[in-house]
Amino acid sequence: MTQRALDSSGETPGPSRPAMIDAGAELDPVHPMEPPPPPHRPDGLTTAEVAERVARGEVNDVPVRSSRSLTEIVRANVFTRFNLIIGVLWVIMLFVAPIQDSLFGFVIVANTGIGIIQEWRAKKTLDSLAVIGEAKPTVRRDGAAAEISTHEIVLGDVIELGPGDKVVVDGVVAEADSLEVDESLLTGEADPVLKRPGDPVMSGSFVVAGGGAFTATKVGREAYAAQLAEEASRFTLVHSELRSGISTILKYVTWMMVPTAIGLIISQLVVKDNNFKDSVARTVGGIVPMIPEGLVLLTSVAFAIGVVRLGRKQCLVQELPAIEGLARVDVVCLDKTGTLTEGGMDVTEVRPLNGSDEAYVEEVLRTFGASDPRPNASLQAIIDAYPQSEEAAWTVTDAMPFSSARKYSGAAFAEADGTASAWLLGAPDVLLSEDDTTLAEIEQLNQQGLRVLLLARVQGDDLDAPGAAAGAAPTALVVLEQRLRPDAGDTLAYFADQNVATKVISGDNAVSVGAVAGKLGLAGAENTLDARRLPSDPDEMATAMEQNAVFGRVTPQQKRDMVAALQSRGHTVAMTGDGVNDVLALKDADIGVSMGSGSEATRAVAQIVLLNNSFATLPSVVAEGRRVIGNITRVATLFLTKTVYSVLLAILVVCTQVEYPFLPRHLTLLSTLTIGVPAFFLALAPNKERAQPHFVRRVMRYAIPSGVIAATATFITYLVARHHYSGPGALDAETSAATLTLFLVSMWVLAIIARPYTWWRIGLVAAMGLGFLIVLVVPWLQDFFALKLVGTTMPWTAVAIAVAAAALLEFVWRWVGRRFGA
After folding, report:
1. Core-most of 3, 62, 260, 592, by most CB within 10 Å?
2. pLDDT band at 810 (very low <50, low <70, confident <90, very high)
3. Could you tell me which of 504, 118, 458 has the C-alpha nearest to residue 338?
4. Is 608 in contact with 588 (CB distance < 8 Å)?
5. C-alpha span between 327 and 623 (Å, rounded)
6. 3-state secondary structure string, 203-249?
7. Three-state SS across 593-642?
8. CA-to-CA distance for 786 and 783, rounded, in angstroms?
9. Each residue of 688-707: pLDDT tens digit?
10. Quick one: where's region Disordered (predicted)?
């Protein structure tokens, strides 16, 4: 068989990417010093030999972790900075105050437990999905080929390779049929490497063309790049604006909390000569609400529930921030084949050219179909239309598999009469000169959304001859009709409705792709561009990308450049694909989405895998991402408003040298009704708005003025109440009045955040208000929470101050919305 490197069509290689693994100075990661290769055994190992190697531990036992272990989950949820602070305060309160002042501690225990349970459920879902999505390499044993799990491979196994297959263990090539391997995940070099028998192959690389087999020489943890396969599907918390933003907020909160808490402790215990236990209780009551502990928990729960929800839809989330990233996507790049169209195609017509005999052309196509043991969709359609008989008169003498860089495949035959002939089958606009009159005929077919291949005869029988493609004689046109996905049109309409731009990027003819997209209702499908005319300047390319919707004849390197060009304009790009030619673009896109039936290589580098192979699942994934990020942004404002007013109240208390107005039970009640319970429901509610950048700024621009207004109104009520009440029960009456104001103002913040209103949102806000009213009117709850409104003047004054604060809140929120945008 002829071994031939990919024709780069004159394209210059892309810039080298940094290697994922540092090999060290002494060792070449791809071509290390190896002992002599083991003798090739075409039939593979016997069952007895496999059992013997398993017994010796020579098995590929690298564990594939799709999530954190249970121990890590418990540790991450329990041992947090704020759990430590609250835990210490809780223990203190258990000794110095009634149990109702220690309720905040039980809430933390419950929240932590919920966080552990939710992540454990997500872990089980991910583990099961990872097994479903795991590729099964084909291994020869006892003379037969069979698919087995990656972890069942043993030393010495003979593993078959085809286009798109990932090399799962280290080995030595035993058979090669134009075998070309992409080692970019190891070396950063995007150009494929031609492999011959005896050459090493490393785990983490994948086949881009041709086929063959290799013998496993290193398995398990001994494989040089084994960790690549493990990292590809790990449940990670890599870059996430949401989580990094929350960490930034918590850092600032800690800086504010420490000096404020110290000042409050000194104020309540030293300056004021109060009952010691009561002073401790009120001091703790001032410190606890400064901590937005529920925000971290709720974020984890929202992410975990998102993973479980997507898992039920057969969507494997390989990296957790992918859920957040999808919320920010404003451009989706789609590969036509396998995304807009189903994998299969049908031959609708064969048109002989230049007086060629139709029966002869059919015999060429029939034999061509037998030349590739791993046919692509186009060749499979030809095989289905022209199956080879058992007593074939023609034989295949040479073959050159299809390459997305070449845009054609080749085969050489010995015909029935002994004549030798060589043929190319591929893109007409690549094999024909630009002035060929046949292109006009092909253009008409492309405009109907049909795919056209050209069968051309090569002079001589050497597929590798210089200029073989340029000198090929056109013999026939093979017209193929692609099967449209029935749900693709609705999916494109969803993206248009959500203001997400859709770009169809394909290796096929641009006009043909545009016709297919037009049938599915893609806006701007008539704006097509042949990628061979795409400008190489990144800025000009970005302009072309924004002005057009359909791109044809795109090379794998161009797909990568197009993603980078869109990102240079500030776009957040999602890329879908299922073929090897999509891998480079999937790696560089903000979010890579692979089909479950796609190549192992695409599934390894994608953050999201659609296991059901349905493009229609993507809107659900995008919606889930928007729900998570949008709702967390909403509820973060609730939590941080509480932090701001708690810190400011403590500062005002220290400056004025008065008793802190609240006991822990009061703020536990307020936090539960105005933040905890509603935040849980709001965080899980539908939300279709695309997430905006600058999470911290967007949250704080609302939380700071809201917290300042709430603290100011509450402290004014408290000071007025101190002048109004006197006697033994004055402090309890003052606390009740201040609590009423703080609750009403906090409820108004909740009412603003709950917009736009639906029946359940109105019901949620009303239920929280009803809960507080019940506490005020039921005697035993009044005693339990130490809340009892005294008289009528002061309670109505508290209400009036809260109403004024609510009006100010409305004005400030509207002003911020106009000044900075929603």
Report:
1. 592
2. very high
3. 504
4. no
5. 7
6. ECEEEEEEEEEEEEEECHHHCCCHHHHHHHCCCCCCCCHHHHHHHHH
7. EEECCCCHHHHHHCCEEECCCCHHHHHHHHHHHHHHHHHHHHHHHHHHHH
8. 5
9. 776 677 788 888 889 999 99
10. 1-43
